[in-house]
Design a protein that fits this description.
The chain is α/β, with parallel strands linked by helices and 242 residues long. The protein has ten helices and ten strands. The protein folds into two domains: 2-77 and 157-236, P-loop containing nucleotide triphosphate hydrolases (Rossmann fold, 3-Layer(aba) Sandwich), CATH 3.40.50.300; 91-154, no CATH class. It is 40% helix and 27% strand.
C-alpha cells in the first residue's frame, strides 16, 4: 500500500533519514522501532509530507506522493496520530472527534457517515461514551490517547500511522491500546506503528524495522526481530531496560 524508496530526509542541513526503504502492505501492521533520535517520527512526518525529502520516492497505492502537500496526503486516506497526542485540550471529546471527521465533512451523506464513524469509535472505546462531553485536557493520559486514535479514525483512514502511542502510559493501558490496534487490523485497516517499546510493538507487528541513527539496521517478521538477542544488544537493549 505504501512504500518508501531510499528516502533521504531531514531538517535544513541535517539529515535525519539516510536512505530508508520501508514497505507497508495492505491490511498489515508494520512496526518501526528504535531508540530516541533514531528517526522514527521523521518517517511518519515524511509520509505526512511535513518533513523535507531530499531524495527518494514515496508511493501510496501506486501513486508517487513525494511532492504532495500535507492536506492532499490526508485526503488520500493517510492519517496520523501524532506523538504526544496533540488533542485540543479545552474542547470536549466530541469536538475533538468532529475535527477528525473534517476530511469527510463536505462529502455526500456526511451526517449519516459522521454518526457511523462515531458509533464505530465509541464501540472500540466504550469508556468514551460517558466522557463525550468532557474536556479532553481533563482526561487521563490513556483516555487522551484513545481520543487521539479515535479522532484519526473519524477520518476513515486507509493507512493509520501512530507515533509512540504508548508514551507515558501504564503497561496495562498500553496492552489495551495494542489490543485495539490488532482489532483494527482485523477490520482491514493498515497500520504503521512507531515505538520505543520494541517488544510489544514487534510482537503485534506482522513485519518490523529496527532503526538507528537514520538508517534501517534490521527488518523481518515482528516475532523474529523481537526474539533476536543480537538486535537487542545492539539497538534495543536500552529500550528493553526502560
Ligand atoms: N524539528 C527538527 N529540527 C531539527 N532536527 C530535528 C527535528 N526533529 C528531529 N530532529 C532530529 O532528527 C533526528 C531524528 O529525530 P526523530 O525522527 O524525532 O527521532 P525519534 O522519533 O526516533 O526519536 C534526531 O537527530 C533529531 O534530533
Ligand atoms: Mg519520535
Amino acid at each position: 500500500m505504501l512504500r518508501l524508496e531510499e528516502i533521504v530526509a531531514g531538517y535544513s542541513k541535517s539529515i535525519a533519514l539516510d536512505g530508508v526503504s520501508i514497505e507497508i502492505p495492505q491490511g498489515r501492521i508494520v512496526s518501526v522501532v528504535g531508540a530516541n533520535g533514531a528517526g522514527k517520527s521523521t518517517i511518519v512526518n515524511t509520509i505526512s509530507r511535513l518533513v523535507t525529502t531530499y531524495s527518494g520516492k514515496i508511493r501510496f497505492e501506486g501513486h508517487d506522493i513525494t511532492s504532495r502537500r500535507p492536506a492532499d496526503v490526508v485526503d488520500l486516506g493517510i492519517v496520523q496520530v501524532p506523538e504526544g497526542r496533540q488533542l485540543f485540550a479545552p474542547l470536549t471529546v466530541e469536538e475533538n472527534l468532529r475535527l477528525g471527521f473534517h476530511r469527510l465533512a463536505g462529502r455526500a451523506e456526511s451526517g449519516r457517515r459522521y454518526q457511523e464513524r462515531l458509533d464505530y469509535v465509541l464501540d472500540l472505546f466504550p469508556i468514551m461514551k460517558q466522557r463525550i462531553g468532557q474536556r479532553a485536557g481533563t482526561m487521563s493520559g490513556g483516555e487522551q490517547q484513545m481520543v487521539a486514535i479515535s479522532r484519526a479514525l473519524m477520518a476513515e483512514p486507509k493507512l493509520l500511522m501512530l507515533d509512540e502511542p504508548s508514551l507515558g502510559l501504564a503497561p496495562m493501558i498500553v496492552d489495551q491500546i495494542f489490543y485495539i490496534l490488532a482489532k483494527l487490523r482485523s477490520d482491514g485497516l493498515t497500520i504503521l506503528l512507531v515505538e520505543q517499546h520494541a517488544d510489544e510493538a514487534l510482537q503485534l507487528a506482522d513485519y518490523g524495522y529496527v532503526m538507528a541513527v537514520g538508517r534501517v539496521r534490521a527488518e523481518g517478521p515482528g516475532n523474529e526481530l523481537r526474539d533476536n538477542p543480537a538486535l537487542h544488544q545492539s539497538y534495543l537493549g536500552r529500550m528493553a531496560a526502560a
